[in-house]
């Protein structure tokens, strides 16, 4: 049975020297990592999460532990497919949730990277992504986002000492994992890693299921549509400066003036007051003269044998 360390016992008690206290803390963390690797989550909850003081002490010391490789407690748990309830309890206990979710491990990977790479439960992936969606677009040391890792099954992170999920179970989790990531952010579909590969290209190259490829195609097109739509909307929303906008009274007066000019022109045409011709063209054989008022022909003068008549142009 794994001993349950208290905060005082882990520090070695009041009379213990610092070296002895550090040795005891290192021993307790080694036992805790063994519990995590064997996925005894009930024991883990009792040891690490029951006492907030113990949790803080373990969280502070774990990254310096020789077996942790720079992992935080959240990283260490996510490598071994923890239940969502355990992840929720960890997130409730951390002092700075945003810092905990953006904290990189030795490979520059956030907890979301690790969860995706180790094919954690899609519910856990969804939980981490929804708490801080900006982590969906963060890249590791290779420039890969969590979506890149979800699309490339060959990039599974090792789980030393763990039994690991069966291969068919990991494969079945790929589509819901990709969907969980895309539901929080479409931006990673446009990001390329250090090799110049997008998540969609990695999915195609790794022979991902057709459902995954189609999902990525739709997400990529939707992200592009939103970007171009936002640009167009911004142009349409660009308004005239307030100082340059005509007042309601001025706009009404301008409209009334245009209406008066239109009525006056109609009356003028009905009375036959045609503007003086600016151009005359002779059309054989009728010798028809077109009077153009600068905008469009209005009347024609048809020259006959004994006089000249004004007739409308047909």
Write a brief caption for the model.
With about 325 residues, this protein is of the alpha+beta class.
3D structure, described in words:
This protein is of the alpha+beta class. 52% of the residues lie in helices and 7% in strands. The chain has 14 helices and 4 strands. The protein has helices at 7-10, 18-37, 41-49, 52-61, 73-78, 84-93, 97-102, 111-117, 122-131, 146-151, 167-184, 199-205, 210-236, 248-270, and strands at 282-283, 288-292, 297-304, 307-312. The longest helix has 27 residues, at 210-236. The model is unreliable at 158-164 and 277-314 (pLDDT under 50).
Classification by helices and strands: alpha+beta
Give the % helix. Answer: 40-55%
CA-based gyration radius = 38 Å
> What is the chain-wise order of helices and strands?
HHHHHHHHHHHHHHEEEE
How far the N terminus sits from the C terminus, by CA atoms, comes to 107 Å
- Total count of strands: 4
* Distinct helical segment count: 14
Unreliable sequence segments: 158-164, 277-314
Topology (elements, then pairings):
Layout: H1 7-10, H2 18-37, H3 41-49, H4 52-61, H5 73-78, H6 84-93, H7 97-102, H8 111-117, H9 122-131, H10 146-151, H11 167-184, H12 199-205, H13 210-236, H14 248-270, E1 282-283, E2 288-292, E3 297-304, E4 307-312
Antiparallel strand pairs: 1-2, 2-3, 3-4
Helix pairs in contact: 8-9, 9-11, 11-13, 12-13
Labels describing this entry:
disordered C terminus, 314 residues, 4-stranded antiparallel β-sheet, 4 strands, 14 helices, alpha+beta
